[in-house]
Amino acid sequence: MNEQAKQNEAVNAQNNMEKKVETVEYRSSAGQGQEERNVQVTHQPHSKTSGGVLSGAAAAVASTLQSAKDAISEK
């Protein structure tokens, strides 16, 4: 995090904790100078991302692989 960043934590309307960080974004394009602008980034932790989404995806992959194995073995 850069030295200019400011952050605060609050509870949002859905009663979830969120962290807002005010910082500076730097962009540059070929042939252009560097552009600087103030931005605010909001971090919202989600309980589903701490394994729930990944375990669901893993189960879907396992099911797909098993279906493929079954289809191949019936040839």
From TrEMBL:
<feature type="region of interest" description="Disordered">
    <location>
        <begin position="1"/>
        <end position="75"/>
    </location>
</feature>
<feature type="compositionally biased region" description="Polar residues">
    <location>
        <begin position="1"/>
        <end position="16"/>
    </location>
</feature>
<protein>
    <submittedName>
        <fullName>Uncharacterized protein</fullName>
    </submittedName>
</protein>
<feature type="compositionally biased region" description="Polar residues">
    <location>
        <begin position="39"/>
        <end position="48"/>
    </location>
</feature>
<feature type="compositionally biased region" description="Low complexity">
    <location>
        <begin position="49"/>
        <end position="68"/>
    </location>
</feature>
